[in-house]
From TrEMBL:
<comment type="similarity">
    <text>Belongs to the AAA ATPase family.</text>
</comment>
<feature type="domain" description="AAA+ ATPase">
    <location>
        <begin position="53"/>
        <end position="200"/>
    </location>
</feature>
<comment type="function">
    <text>Required for vesicle-mediated transport. Catalyzes the fusion of transport vesicles within the Golgi cisternae. Is also required for transport from the endoplasmic reticulum to the Golgi stack. Seems to function as a fusion protein required for the delivery of cargo proteins to all compartments of the Golgi stack independent of vesicle origin.</text>
</comment>
<protein>
    <recommendedName>
        <fullName>Vesicular-fusion protein SEC18</fullName>
    </recommendedName>
</protein>
Length: 298
């Protein structure tokens, strides 16, 4: 019927709980409302409203906070093709015209399907990591190389060309929002900007739960480990650093089982337990790289 959404829609077996991403519920909710809600309206209503779908999202924030995880999940949430994932430095090529050609190729499949199937085309997602790398340097001493100019222009022309296409969603990512060419951020381009910041205490607890779920359900976690305590003691840790903390604690635990007189063989791993003290040792070893605030440095 005319009420059936023909564009992207939440994948039938999609469950938010299965995402394995902690502490980003507000960010997901914002993305959903701002970038997807129009795509699941009945097409007739979209026409009556006279609106265009959002074609581009920019995720920005410090490294290791889950931007890449999120971008990939967005593809899984929607009935989209396997996303194309590229990163800025990989697009750049020293041969004249080759970088622009790389950008052009990214859009080729979506353009072809749109031509063949029109509104029945599936959604194509393009994930652009380290987007700042293709933008010319601004505000740095000595000025920029300007190398990125024509590459950015090519990307802009593709994005604007997508105007007629409703089947493309671009997800850009960067740790350097200040480096992104403003032309890329305008309405109709990467117009929805979502900040992915370091997790707060409850986010850290969710992330620690995710990264210890196997060891907890397999009885390898010591009874004395209190994840809430660890969440409280890991201010400024990113998701990636919390993952590193769990790995470090595990390495302290397995190290107790090294066979005497060897460096590479374990003994008796049956009773392996990762204990609170392993996590405390790990806390000495794994430090947050970002967001350490001034009071703590004084
Ligand atoms: P970068 O800017 O360095 O590319 P990013 O923000 O894209 O970083 P990811 O690559 O998504 O970060 O995260 C790296 C790893 O850290 C993930 O594979 C995951 O193991 C862990 N991680 C980061 N954030 C989260 C999170 N919010 N929930 C669960 N795991 C996380």
């Amino acid at each position: 019927s005319n009420n059936r959404p023909t564009n992207a829609i939440l994948a039938p077996n999609f469950k938010f709980e299965d995402m394995g991403i902690g502490g980003l519920d507000n960010e997901f909710a914002a993305i959903f409302r701002r970038a997807f809600s129009s795509r699941i309206l009945p097409p007739g209503l979209v026409e009556r409203l006279g609106i265009n779908h959002v074609k581009g999202i920019l995720l920005f924030g410090p490294p290791g906070t889950g931007k890449t995880l999120m971008a990939r999940q967005i593809g899984g949430m929607l009935n989209a093709r396997e996303p194309k994932v590229v990163n800025g430095p990989e697009i750049l090529n020293k041969f004249v015209g080759q970088s622009e050609e790389n950008i052009r190729k990214l859009f080729a499949d979506a353009e072809k399907e749109q031509k063949e199937k029109g509104d029945e085309s599936g959604l194509h997602i393009i994930i652009f990591d380290e987007l700042d790398a293709i933008c010319k340097q601004r505000g740095t001493t000595g000025g920029g190389t300007g190398v990125g100019d024509s590459v950015v222009n090519q990307l802009l022309s593709k994005m604007d060309g997508v105007d007629q296409l409703n089947n493309v969603l671009i997800i850009g990512m960067t740790n350097r929002m200040d480096m992104i060419d403003e032309a890329l951020l305008r309405p109709g381009r990467l117009e929805v900007h979502i900040e992915v910041s370091l997790p707060d205490e409850s986010g850290r607890l969710q992330i620690l739960n995710i990264h210890t779920s196997k060891m907890r359900s397999n009885g390898v976690m010591g009874d004395d480990v209190d994840l809430a305590e660890l969440a409280a003691r890991t201010k400024n840790f990113s998701g990636a650093e919390l993952n590193g903390l769990v790995k470090s604690a595990t390495s302290f635990a397995t190290n107790r089982h090294i066979k005497v007189g060897t460096v590479a063989a374990y003994d008796n791993l049956d009773n392996l337990k990762i204990t609170r003290s392993d996590f405390l040792h790990a806390l000495d070893e794994v430090q947050p790289a970002f967001g350490v605030n001034e009071e703590e440095l004084q």
